Amino acid sequence: MGWLSCGKHAGGVRRGERRRSVVTGTEPGVAVATARRLADEVLAPNAALVDAERRWPAEGMSALLSELGGLVVPEECGGMGLGLSAVARVGEVTGRACASTSICLGMHLVASAVISARATDHQRRHLLEPIAAGEHLTTLALSEPGTGGEFWLARTAMENKGDRLLLTGEKSFVTNGGHADSYVVSTVAGGADTLPGRFSCVLLDADAPGMTWGAPWTGMGMRGNDSRSLRLDGVSLPRTRLLGEEGDQIWYVFNVVAPYFLIAMAGTYLGVAAAALEEVRRHLLRRRHALSGDALAAQPMVQHRLGSMWARVERTRRLIHQAAEEADAGGPEGLPALLSAKAEVAETVESVTNEALTLAGGIGYAGDSPLHRHLRDGRAAHVMAPLTDTLRMWTGRALLEQPLLGE
């Protein structure tokens, strides 16, 4: 992806001043293996407590940032230089272990891609290199109250004050809220009749005066992602925090935010579906009828239903991987495939977790069952924007060569 480049020089910073990412190279296989190790050693053992205590997964995020924080940061900046395919595969691995942690990492990766897309020398030195070194957590702050799932319709005002920018507004559902070092914030020009989608994007430091966080996240599922509201009351920041040019954020939305956001979510929820499938498969292999001694695994109806579940997960996995590969290559089917990937995985994870719960019976319905958590986490796939119906409509528009956002 050529637009994710730091250029030949990383702002004059000597490479010895920061360590490079632990995982390097151009193939996603090593990154996936690293994610699998961290998922087994850190994420999975903490997943139940992250869910039960509604706590932000500090241990898991620390481990992931240390070794995979620079997954999509260009190699010239010390990162791994990987793209959507790696995000999808890593997301499935982390999503299997802990969906909350996976989404927290996913939003960091999306924001990292946004910063990388048109980074200045200053942003390369002060943002991308720390991200690549695992020293900086970033995330998105795009959604706002009252606009539903249309996160591209920003109302947060940005006023130019010489070499400073002044932000006033409110954001909602900010994943990693209060924990990140920086936030990618969408804004519109204050007092101007700005066309929908013609907004600007800035990077807000976590310690900027004028930021007020809302109450902790209390969702039905995804309980650890700490998705909070954020109030901005005249927050001042230097113009060096402007990403790209003023008013060109619609380019970011459809060239960076949407592809990475959709794939990060698709990978995570694919992981949840795969985890539910494996959980019920193991349950069926263990269980026998108390009187007859017959194994549940020997029942034709059980075999049929489990086989159907496996096929649905595998079809969705192949769509997600193909979408990521096509988009990474800039292929013509990239757009409809990306849109369909998130819509398809939302329906798959809902169906598979429900079916797994049915096959597991009362044991699966118990509050301490992993299926209980998978069902609640997976249901968020339909809720997180863009909504499934919107994605289906956009897919049709893309195929019919119509504007995605309408006339």
Automatic annotation (TrEMBL):
Co-factor(s): FAD
Gene3D superfamilies: Acyl-CoA dehydrogenase/oxidase, N-terminal domain, Butyryl-CoA Dehydrogenase, subunit A, domain 2, Butyryl-CoA Dehydrogenase, subunit A, domain 3
Family matches, as InterPro entries: Acyl-CoA_Oxase/DH_mid-dom (IPR006091), Acyl-CoA_Oxase/DH_mid-dom_sf (IPR046373), AcylCo_DH-like_C (IPR036250), AcylCo_DH/oxidase_C (IPR009075), AcylCoA_DH/ox_N (IPR013786), AcylCoA_DH/ox_N_sf (IPR037069), AcylCoA_DH/oxidase_NM_dom_sf (IPR009100)
Key words, A-Z: FAD, Flavoprotein, Membrane, Oxidoreductase, Transmembrane, Transmembrane helix
Keyword Transmembrane attached: yes
Keyword Ion transport: no
Transmembrane domains' residue ranges: 250-277
Residues of the Acyl-CoA oxidase/dehydrogenase middle domain: 140-235
Region ranges (Disordered): 1-21
This protein's name: Acyl-CoA dehydrogenase
Organism: Streptomyces alkaliphilus
